[in-house]
Design a protein that fits this description.
Blueprint: E1 4-8, H1 28-43, H2 46-59, E2 63-67, H3 76-89, E3 95-98, H4 115-118, E4 130-133, E5 136-139
Parallel strand pairs: 1-2, 2-3
Antiparallel strand pairs: 4-5
């Protein structure tokens, strides 16, 4: 038997602005920050992720698939913090990641700290990663695209 754990919409990062990032609050990201500040920061808590990680360690699944929204606003500090969280969940050979719309909030998007988890292991690691784990093939369809406010949508190519 193959045991797959699936996590989605973790939103477990802290929202901390680095010098020079405050102008990114203009527009869509500002409304996202306001939503986080007023409501979502109480809903998405790091202590819950810590409990989940402890349970995953006890359950020892064969593979963990993480789909979307590790961050709230896609800030560089959040992307780096989420990379550290991924390392705490599982090593890259046992975890696959497909980013979500909150991770690709605005262009340009630099998800390089996550590449070990997003590249897949079949093909060239391009836009359609595939992970082969025993009898299972996981295909990552990433529809997340930076969009203008108030949209949070995505699309798949041809």
């Amino acid at each position: 038997m193959f045991v797959l754990a699936h996590l989605s919409d973790l939103h477990a990062t802290r929202v901390r602005f680095r010098p020079g990032e405050l102008p990114s609050l203009l527009g869509k990201r500002g409304f996202g920050w306001l939503s986080w500040r007023m409501r979502r920061r109480a809903e998405y808590r790091r202590d819950v992720l810590d409990l989940l990680c402890a349970d995953l360690a006890d359950q020892r699944p064969d593979h963990v698939a993480v789909t979307g929204d590790l961050t709230h606003l896609g800030l560089r500090s959040e992307i780096e913090e989420a990379a550290s969280q991924l390392r705490g969940i599982s090593p890259p050979e046992r975890l696959s990641l497909v980013p979500g719309n909150h991770d690709a909030y605005r262009a340009p998007v630099d998800l390089s700290p996550w590449y070990a988890y997003t590249a897949g292991d079949v093909g060239d690691g391009g836009p359609l990663p595939c992970w082969i784990r025993g009898p299972v093939a996981l295909l990552g369809l990433d529809s997340a695209r930076p969009t203008r406010w108030p949209l949070a949508t995505g699309w798949l190519g041809a």
